[in-house]
Amino acid sequence: MVHVREMGAADVEAVSTIRVRGWQAAYAGIVPQAYLDAMTVEGDASQRRQWVSQPGRQSRDLVALGERGPVGWICFGPCRSEVPGPGRAGEVYALYVLPDLIGQGIGGRLLEEAHRLMRSQGFEVSALWVLSDNQRARRFYERSGYQADGAAQDDAYDEVTLTELRYRRGL
Question: What is the CATH number of domain 3-124?
Answer without folding.
Answer: 3.40.630.30
